[in-house]
């Protein structure tokens, strides 16, 4: 069996969508080896600091080392999104602080660092000087990773070069084309912070020893095969390990969800559509109201998590203020509308829930698959249109390509209530969708069973890391 001295340090970045998979990875790894989690302070959201505390209470055997961020002048960063500013603060701080921090983790000596993708350029010089193997936990889909990893082959490492090289769609060998309309919007904004990170870090991929992705073969066969082929044919391309599905852990449970659970308990089986757009994207008031009207119109019961601010600490107005009292009154009969953090997996695993209107964040897609809840994907931002292809191609759900990005900002269009109602009805009524998600769920269960492909992937990694 594995020697206890294998020691893995995990270095996540900001935001719940990134923190959660790192914590779930920590929980899977701690069964086999020593784990240290590097946490950064301060966090952007309350949800992050709360979850970190609960994690260490639940896993006292995981060591914590704290990484205090150096101050960053926001005017030196081309972004107003607090999460992107935080990513940059972590990147810059890591250049100075990571080396002494990793060197201090000496008992037992560190075997490997697993970190967030947009830290590659900060981490590589450090791990090279310490001769430490380095792996990424890519917190999106394998399809998105194929896109990320393909960029250096077509661009001149800048948005301008990329835009002119792109055309209508990007043909990546082995996967279906990525249309221009699916490119993360910020990648097309010259000199955006996001574009800077994307191009700088993808260009250094060949210095990464391996990539872990929370996915499994049957969910993304084409992308995983294509990545494997690329590894075989291209020197320096890192191996990709499908280590999913990651599952929710007990410590993630939140008290606030009791009222939600009580309400769900009263609803008939598979009668409720759950609506949530993730932890980082706020929607415009106009879109929120059309969505609310659409939910009323669809005729199904619904549980809707409203979000109109990017960061939870800024959410000051109650849900009535945000969606309007008149609409709240209409929604009362069939809906429960909340504006706080909920226990999403508890909701998805509830027998009353039959469908999920989701922004198709990678974690949400995987969670819906695990519980066999079919998805109506409505991408808001970033990687989400690329993930929506995974939803459709795998049979986990549907999406409407003609709908614009669903968030708030210049490039977003409001989708009207009638269209929303019609698609939600299709989601809830289609028998073929039900059958297809059932098949994907079965595959997810097989991948996660004891001795299944997920366990084998971890054993392979740990064997390598102990050398
Ligand atoms: Br909101 C919300 N409760 O109320 P994604 C989210 N979640 O448990 P995102 C809750 O946050 P990225 C809530 O289950 C999932 O694990 C949810 O991750 C959980 O989207 C996670 O789905 C959200 O990947 O992150 O937040 O947009 O930017 O990484 O896609």
**What class would the helix/strand composition place it in?**
alpha/beta
Q: What strand line-up does the widest sheet have?
A: 3-2-1-4-5-8-9
Parts with pLDDT < 50 across at least 5 consecutive residues: none
What hetero molecules are in the model? Answer: 5-bromouridine 5'-(tetrahydrogen triphosphate)
Arithmetic mean of pLDDT: 91
Overview of this protein structure:
By secondary structure, the protein is an alpha/beta fold. Helices cover 45% and strands 14% of the residues. The strands form 3 sheets. The chain has a 7-stranded parallel beta sheet with strand order 3-2-1-4-5-8-9, sandwiched between helices. It has a 6-stranded parallel beta sheet with strand order 12-11-10-13-14-15, with helices on both faces. The chain is globular. The mean pLDDT is 91. 5-bromouridine 5'-(tetrahydrogen triphosphate) (BUP) binds at residues 15-18, 20, 139, 276, 278-280, 305, 341-345, 361-364, 367, 382.
């Amino acid at each position: 069996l594995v020697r206890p001295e294998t020691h893995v340090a995990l270095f996540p970045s900001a935001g719940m969508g990134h923190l959660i998979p790192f914590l779930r990875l920590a929980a899977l790894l701690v069964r086999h080896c020593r784990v240290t989690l590097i946490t950064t302070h301060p966090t952007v959201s309350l949800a992050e600091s709360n979850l970190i505390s609960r994690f260490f209470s639940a896993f006292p055997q995981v060591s914590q080392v704290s990484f205090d961020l150096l101050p960053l002048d926001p005017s030196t960063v081309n972004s107003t999104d607090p999460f992107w500013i935080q990513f940059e603060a972590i990147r810059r701080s890591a250049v100075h602080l990571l080396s002494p921090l990793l060197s201090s983790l000496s008992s037992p000596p560190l075997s490997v660092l697993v970190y967030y993708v947009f830290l590659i350029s900060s981490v590589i010089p450090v791990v090279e000087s310490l001769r430490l193997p380095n792996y990424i936990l890519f917190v999106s889909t394998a399809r998105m990773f194929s896109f990320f990893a393909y960029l250096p082959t077509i661009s001149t490492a800048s948005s301008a070069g990329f835009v002119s090289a792109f055309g209508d769609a990007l043909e990546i060998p082995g996967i279906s084309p990525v249309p221009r309309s699916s490119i993360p919007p910020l990648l097309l904004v010259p000199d955006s912070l996001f574009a800077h990170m994307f191009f700088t870090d993808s260009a250094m991929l060949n210095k990464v020893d391996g990539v872990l992705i929370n996915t499994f073969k049957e969910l993304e066969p084409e992308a995983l095969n294509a990545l494997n082929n690329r590894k075989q044919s291209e020197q320096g391309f890192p191996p990709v390990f499908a280590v999913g599905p990651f599952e929710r852990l007990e410590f993630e449970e939140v008290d606030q969800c009791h009222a939600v659970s009580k309400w769900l308990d009263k609803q008939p089986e598979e009668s409720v559509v759950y609506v949530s757009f993730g932890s980082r994207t706020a929607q415009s008031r106009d879109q929120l109201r059309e969505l609310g009207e659409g939910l009323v119109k669809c005729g199904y019961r619904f549980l809707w998590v409203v979000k109109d601010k990017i960061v939870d600490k800024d959410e000051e107005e109650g849900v009535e203020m945000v969606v309007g009292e008149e609409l709240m009154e209409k929604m009362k009969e069939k809906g429960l509308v909340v504006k706080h953090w909920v226990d999403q997996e508890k909701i998805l695993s509830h027998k009353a829930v039959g469908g999920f209107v989701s922004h198709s964040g990678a974690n949400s897609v995987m969670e819906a698959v695990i519980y066999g809840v079919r998805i109506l994907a409505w991408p808001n931002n970033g990687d989400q249109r690329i993930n929506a292809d995974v939803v459709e191609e795998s049979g986990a759900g549907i999406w409407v390509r003609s709908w614009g990005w669903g968030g708030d900002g210049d490039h977003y269009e409001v989708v009207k209530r009638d269209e929303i109602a019609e698609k939600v009805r299709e989601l809830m009524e289609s028998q073929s969708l039900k059958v297809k998600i059932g098949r994907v769920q079965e595959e997810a269960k097989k991948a996660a069973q004891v001795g299944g492909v997920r366990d084998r992937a971890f054993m392979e990694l740990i064997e390598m890391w102990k050398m």
